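Researcher: Before we compare anything, I want clean individual predictions. No alignment, no superposition, just each chain on its own. First chain goes here; please echo the sequence and then give the structure tokens.
Model: Echoing the first chain and its structure:
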Amino acid sequence: MIPRPAPGQAWGVTAVHLSYHGLLALDDVSVTVTAGQVTAVVGGDGAGKTSLLRCLAGVLRPAAGQVRRPAKARIGFLPASSGTYPDLTVAENLRFRASAYGLRADVATRRAAELMEQAGLAAARDRLAANLSGGMRQKLGVIAALLHRPELLILDEPSTGVDPVSRSGLWWLIASAAADGAAVILATTYLDDAQRAAEVLALDAGKVLASGTPDEIVRLMPGSVHAITAAPAGRAAQRGWRRGAGWRVWCPPGTDDAGALGTPVKPDLQDAVIATALARQLPSLPRDTPPHEAPVQINRARKRPAGPLIESIAVTCRFGSFTAVRDVSVAVEAGEIVGLLGANGAGKTTLIRMVLGLIPATAGQVRLLSAPPSRLTRRRIGYVPQGLGLYDDLTAAENMAFAAAVFGGGAASLPGPADLPGTVSGASLPVGQLPLGLQRRVAFAQALAHGPDVLILDEPTSGVDPLGRARLWQTIAAAVQSGAGALVSTHYMEEAEECDRLIIMADGAVVAAGTAAQIIGDARVTVVDSGDWATAFGLLERAGLPVSLAGRTLRVPGARPDQVRQVLPPGYHVHTEPGTLEERFFDLLRPVSQDALPG
């Protein structure tokens, strides 16, 4: 029997400093990780998240500060790479990890079987890790880190690039570990992940931006946030960012133009982190610094079709006996952003490749700018693939000059990556040596440089900090407002509000379409509030009810309040709240998903 983690333990770091070759990676950073709860470290690429987790795991030794951690044998660690061996099967990976932890073979076999069954990996136990989906591979990495029931579980970006269904499974494993008594700390670039945690630490360039519970971070945000319908002008432009169909503006305490911006809104965690980042950045900018606006120019000399810019009509695509896309009809008009959502294997990438003309449709019709996809129509597309499509050994300027030659333009007319919002220095470095967030800004500049009529973007903001992500969405919106149309594939529900319409795919077919509000409808979810969430989590899980953790609150989608009350003893507050898009998404995909959360 593997002992449970000891209750009441708290681990963490205090006033830690860390440098790499003279470059400061962590500057006076502190965090406490408490047993039985989840702590999230949020920030963009290069914020210091991985450095902090490696210090806590004992992989790096800080130059100054204190690190409190259990013995290494009592730590579970998931690196950003998932930490699995691609040429070993699922079962072999777990046997190898169990031997490294010194577990008895019979105990390890029982524990591995239990975790694989709970995580939905039992059927894949003899499959090579290299042949798993990204979500299944991440779940395998988390299971491997949990085998010995660690006191401290450290997860480096466990959900990055993972589809929402697999993400639900990951969060179920994470919540299970915390309910079992482990202190859990994870790194993420996404605030909807951080919102699930009990405590949040936001980092920016190695410094603490904000810390506390999500509610505390919102309450301690300086100044106020205002919602407006049009892009802010004048001095307010530096403090504004796009949010959904409108704009937000942060007003520092005592701002003389706050009254002109209307009534402030109640900020959420996303607003609070962005506003706090602006509070740190703006004092260092000259008063006459122009607002962050990308020079988006659509080629108006081209004749744009009267109909949709992108259209698929009853499209089907088969690979042998396998049907990847079945009878899908999608349209993207000029001036709109259409979001494409779905789990891995839903058919999103196949649909995009048919739109690009890279693979033919088996049946149905695909039209791009009112014509079949061709080299001629592809010249009018701005495409940012998930892999970015940049040459690592060329500088940003050289990448853009190459793109200009491909599209038949002149390099002198191209906007440089510094023209994109949030871009920093690094022009002399090869792109492969730039931070991921900066690489994405270069990819955006390259995609927009020739004034495309259509934008096709695959996970465009992965790895970017919250403010940088808001600026990139501002760039997308500016292109669309200039007359382009955009088809955007994303795994993250917080980005869905940036889209005018959403298309949700599952098993190659469209299962829902419309605005986020239309898709959610009047859906509600049962919520359990209690200080003793871990006990409630275990009871609900054993009853076969799908349960997810949000801070210290449990959400039980698909279950009525009376069903939940029958499982729990008296003393728990059970009520309903409006459902989220992610919960509705999961309900739509649950019947067809092969990698779903158990229960």
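Researcher: Okay. Second chain, same rules.
Model: Second chain and its structure:
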Amino acid sequence: MTIGIIFGGFSREREVSFAGGRTVYDNLNKSLFEAVPIFVDSYGNFVLLDWQYVYKGSIRDFYPPPASVPVTKPPFQIYAESLALSSVSDQENLLRQIGKPIPAARLKEFIDFAFLTLHGPFGEDGKIQGLLEWLEIPYSGSGILSSAIGIDKVIQKELMSEKGFNVPAYFNFNRQAWLSGDQLAIFEKSKLHCGFPLVIKPAHQGSSIGVTVLKSDNFEAFKHAVEAALFIRYVNKQEWDEKREILVAEITDFRVDLGLPLMIAENTIYDPASLYYYLDHYFQSSDNPVQLQGCDQENDLLVEAFIKGKEFSCIVLENTDGTPLALPPTEIRKSQDIYSYRSKYLPGLSRKITPIEIGDDQIRAICRACEKLYTALSFDVYARIDGFISEKGKIFLNDPNTTSGMMPSSFFFHQAAEIGLNPSQFLTYIIYTSIKARIRGQSRKTNFEQHFESLKFQLGQIKSTAGKKEKVAVLMGGYSSERHISVESGRNVFEKLASSTKYDPVPVFVSGDSGSYHMYRIPINILLKDNADDIQEKISHYALHGVVREIIKLASPIIDLFSSADALNPPQSWSFDQLAIECDSVFIALHGRPGEDGDIQAELEKRQISYNGSGVESSRLTIDKHATNELLASKGILVASHILVTKEEFANDELNSLTRIEKIFTYPLIAKPCDDGCSSAVKKIKNRAELEAYTRLIFRNKSQLDTAEATLLGLAGEEEFPQKKVFLIEELITARGAEKFMEITGGMLTRYNQAGELVYEIFDPSEALSSGEVLSLEEKFLAGEGQNITPPRYAMDTDDQREIAAYVKMELEKTARILNIEGYCRIDAFIRIFSPKHVEVIIIEANSLPGMTPATAIFHQAALSGYKPYEFINEVLEFAKKKLSQADHA
């Protein structure tokens, strides 16, 4: 069956949709389905997307195509709407650069079924569902009516109140009433209805966009919150003088601010550069604030009483008999009042506790309430229902969603794992049940019934061939500051292999400390926990909660059809000997120590188990950034000037230690750990006070951070900062007069030629664009946050581009050979381009086990070389087996 994954769109949640679409595209069972990516662009056009673009980290990485983006000073990242293409032919010409434009009326020629991962208006509001009904294409999730209800928070409140559900006190008003009416009166009515604290939110947005919690009786603060929810803001001259470029980037970010296009007076601004020039010109002649309004506006606002208690989210499924079944509700623990976009989608910044930690009867009451609401609002297939349970035990359901986020860490997969379904199995369930729902709702449904019977038959065949695949242990977790990203990498590898026809992956979690570590085979419900710390806690105290057992029993018809009885077996402690007995090979998805330091590789080699990545000696070298720099420099490779700073030296004489650094380097300089990656504790140090703060923090003896020193370094509230006995100081690499200067990250694969010699396939690197002083964790791993241009924009002239690209690849390969890299790796570098004949490649670091999260740059690069992520992972595993075979023959 051909599954069209419809994703992207033009709502403020398009990046979440894009990342969710990629998850579905990768995790569909390859024995059952052919996945077809159907991208919806900023203008509402459908395009059959060339598959390699699915693996970009952000929509902006490929659309609009980099060649179509005007070069501006200062430079800004843009979406396609900033090109202001009013002509259909111009839009189609742009689309042809990324795929094949498809008129909506012809969708049925390309797909048998539409899997919807669109969010917000035109995705969750019944419009796309109505189009697909008209075209007689079965689609996932709820139908037209329930989708229309699910998008409108005001209508939801009214219906829920009428049907007897607990609803927090609320007050609603529209844009016109606010802009033309008595704003103070609206404030007074809001206070009267809701008291304090109160919550102000747009009625038709998701992902907590435009939401504010107001705690005090302050009209100006209320006014600011309403303007944020209406996507209105004011800019004053002081803000402009202080922030300028950063301010423009903030304003044009539609996830948290106005987005583009926007209105200033009667002028429509389409792109960031035009906004920059407009504001710059305006404040040259005026000291008055200027009002900006997003063209993607919100018309209705909702004010609610703030509920003090536990927040939860609950996925409700349609069981095989058509009755609703609530999965174990998840408690959301966050560091602030709002479950923000950042907290939702970046691993490790919030916690999901499943089931919610309350009494059993209260959990059951939440489940029954969610099932009741599912039925009352006529939902189909599945829904995600959010709510609160107050301190007095009262249940409030406040945000039913007909389309859940489908990123790997979302509630959608997290709760399905509680009944033993991995993501691939759960997606199959969604398709199966959606076809049943469309059969119920359509009068002309012959092809729907054919698809359903065919799928049912194929599911039986898959069951009969279970257990005949190659077992791969996927190692993840660890104890470094990169452990959460390691879990994301490991889950992604597991999911890619689990949807294949070749492999049966086994998730193995690594825990412990630098003295010793332990391995545990873990069940799917633990694998899909929120982060590494949650996984560790569940391993230590594993038990199926009583209410979860009840839900599993109710879900047995689903489990029997889509999963297996042993999916929820308890965690099992494994030795390397046990691993060798149970599995055919190993994929190490660990970052830092252990994993990249050679110790695990040495244990695997003793037992002749094939594994991904470089060998023992190369791993031990590349994890040490100082040793790597020293070796590369000795071989003529350009690296940053660098020195080591030790805890012993600093403890003996703090002043002399700091003075030594200042004699060698000028500010600003870079401070970083020697053996951590993922931008962990990499800081641009601008003065003595920051250097002293950094040194004290990294050499501290307690886990807790000193607040004043953390503030001085600009550490985010949730940011971890490692404790080390040594760290690295490097010069800040700058352009030094180069015509072009950029940061790149380059991936590669290795294989053996017919003569048994090691051959390197160097991918086109990615140009990494940073919005701050160094590439942040968010820019590397948060959906839609960073931007990577692949291949890098070395030169405008084609011949110059080719010449520079060849030289850069040559330097990357030379670096890899010096370091004896095997299998695959990622090398980061800065590039100075003085002319096509004069290029400098300054190596920053080599990662022997690069991040394998869904949006990581190595997948973008592999895609341009013809490898889908599964195919890339398969190449890595196949090389590992050949390497072991060669070693045996030797």
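Researcher: What stands out in the second chain?
Model: The mean pLDDT is 92. Additionally, The chain has 33 helices and 36 strands.
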